[in-house]
Write a structure and sequence with these properties.
homodimer, TIM Barrel, three-stranded antiparallel β-sheet, eight-stranded parallel β-sheet, 358 residues
């Protein structure tokens, strides 16, 4: 029942949504390829301004007539703390030197909450009639929900605990992504400490589906037909896959990032807040190890993200994997280099095999 | 194929193994009830001496003619560090006072590795013809494996990463328990740091089953038919359930522990090494929070375990949940007070419903 309604409502042939991967990984090519192959492609608008998002939407629309979605970061209120800022700059300085970064002008976010940009993105989503909008890092306000719902845009929240899922349903969103501790990239936790929001999908989904009625989309470490069928058994109607799409031909991830993922093992990812000020899962490297002891003394998101930008860029340009954010979920051993179409076909074939084999 | 062979080899009607829960939770009543209902009951011998284990085996044999198993801790080599010992005693002293523990004679393990007791337990398992033996915290030696295999005892290792699972297969064990990060109680990690061994089952199982051929038993947060079927889709032949059996009538967990589990939510468990010196998952409380900052300065397992014994006992006797180890997996919201028979029946019914509903 839930599943049928989700398929129809998201215009899906297969129960797969491509995770929005900010920082250039989710290209219009990837988004469109996913949507053209019976799944839902997503634009990652978390770090975009309205001009950049408009460009992405137009590029996707050129490449597909099918549905796609946009993901937004719900802005958090933050303070710029001088002491944390000083600590971070002190720790990053020797890294700048070692990477020969001479000019590293940091443009720190000015406001205490980047609300303006967010509201302009909402306006744009309405104007461009984007059919699906997902949210990370919190709940959109009543007003935002009301405006988007008036345009019949489907709204999907991201939860990392049962309580967050319940709040998303209460707020009136249409569906919920349950992000397990297995997931790569940033944690979506917003009602708990980041440690409290680390629930494995095997535990998170069955507890959540007993208490909520909106359809559930499972995210975290899902990269093959086995995990797709497992997520459905647990009570999810569909899955969201990030790392699996990250190594696809159409993804904008650098080769060094793709190689790092395909060569990693399950025990080589770790959680760090050193890149952005918010916890995220990626492949362990020198930067993460150097900063580990100091994580609690660094500025919050998005300040730390701005401070490490030049380091991440230089490291990537120099083909040095040790100072880049190599986001990955906990199943890198299932990653392979292929087109999005090949990936989707393989996963759906495997899912059928799993089903017939039990 | 793998599953059929596992059912037969473990004499199972249902693909469920009861997790061995040390410290008096796995009673002979629980073990026998599980075995009498088509599943495999387990004796937790981790903290037992040969006399105590013999008593448990005899009690179980009185109550069931069916197969059951014994779980052993593979002894680790450890050092008693004076500085860590001093830190721990200093931190625990005010807790002793607040709980009015006047005499707290600590009998610290004498040897650097408690090998003698372990080998006596092995001898006993052979003498008593226990049909199944599972291992936690490491690989048994070649000699131990050889001796047990000669008696056709089925040997099962515990892995928390793909690499550990591969090593267990290589060593010649018959099956492997994959312990996901969702699991309650102690982490079985032995080839990695404890942080590296925290893989969610959704990621751990599909990566492991591609590289190993021995049957897989999934453990961690599995408490209902949804998770049972999910584990099978991922590639496991059976599941091991701990917390689900902990709140059963036949379990020896204190009422205060059972109540704490049934009232907890998914985000209220946490990992701590403060109780024993080894990381374990339980419901957060005052003791865990007090010790959190100092975890890295405490003695290793089993020294810290000996040091906190009187505190855990006094807290339990005083019906004070704040200084006890309230082990629980990440799905406490699925726990209920019932008999083992009722639990097994419900899980199997749910599993069938899940199967028919997809």
């Amino acid at each position: 029942m839930k599943q049928a309604s989700l398929y129809e409502r998201l215009h899906l042939t297969h129960p797969i949504i491509q995770a929005p991967m900010a920082g250039g990984i989710s290209t219009p090519e990837l988004t469109a390829a996913v949507s053209n192959n019976g799944c839902l492609g997503m634009i990652a608008a978390g770090y975009l301004d309205p001009d950049a998002l408009l460009k992405e939407i137009k590029a996707v629309k050129k490449k597909t007539k099918n549905w796609f979605g946009v993901n937004l970061f719900v802005p958090n209120v933050y303070e710029i703390e001088d002491c944390a800022l000083h600590t971070s700059k002190t720790l990053l300085e020797p890294i700048h030197e070692s990477l020969h970064i001479e000019q590293h002008q940091v443009s720190l976010p000015e406001a205490k909450c980047d609300d303006d940009n967010y509201h302009q993105l909402i306006d744009l989503i309405i104007r461009e009639k984007v059919p699906v909008c997902t949210f990370t890092f919190g709940l959109p306000s009543r007003d935002v929900i009301h405006r988007l719902k008036q345009q019949h845009i489907i709204l999907i929240g991201t939860a990392t605990t049962v309580k967050e899922a319940i709040e998303i349903e209460r707020a009136g969103l249409d569906m919920v992504i349950l992000q397990g501790s297995e997931a790569g990239g940033h944690r979506g936790t917003f009602l708990h400490t980041e440690d409290e929001g680390l629930i494995g999908l095997m535990a998170l989904i069955p507890q959540a589906v007993r208490l909520i009625n909106i359809p559930v989309i499972a995210a975290g470490g899902i990269m093959d037909g086995r995990a797709l069928m497992a997520a459905r058994c647990l009570g999810a109607a569909a899955v969201q896959m990030g790392t699996a799409f990250l190594t696809c031909t159409e993804s904008g991830a650098t080769d060094i990032h793709k190689q790092a993922v395909t060569k990693a093992t399950d025990s080589q990812t770790t959680l760090t807040s050193a890149f952005s000020g918010k916890k995220a899962r990626g492949i362990n490297n020198t930067f993460i190890r150097m900063m580990q002891k100091h994580e609690h003394d660094l500025p919050v998101f998005p300040i730390q993200n701005a401070l490490t930008k030049s380091i991440r860029a230089a490291s990537s340009n120099q083909n040095n994997r040790e100072f880049m954010s190599l986001w990955s979920g906990q199943s890198p051993m299932l990653a392979s280099l292929q087109s999005a179409e090949e990936l989707i076909e393989r996963v759906m074939e495997e899912a059928e095999e799993v089903w017939n084999g039990i």
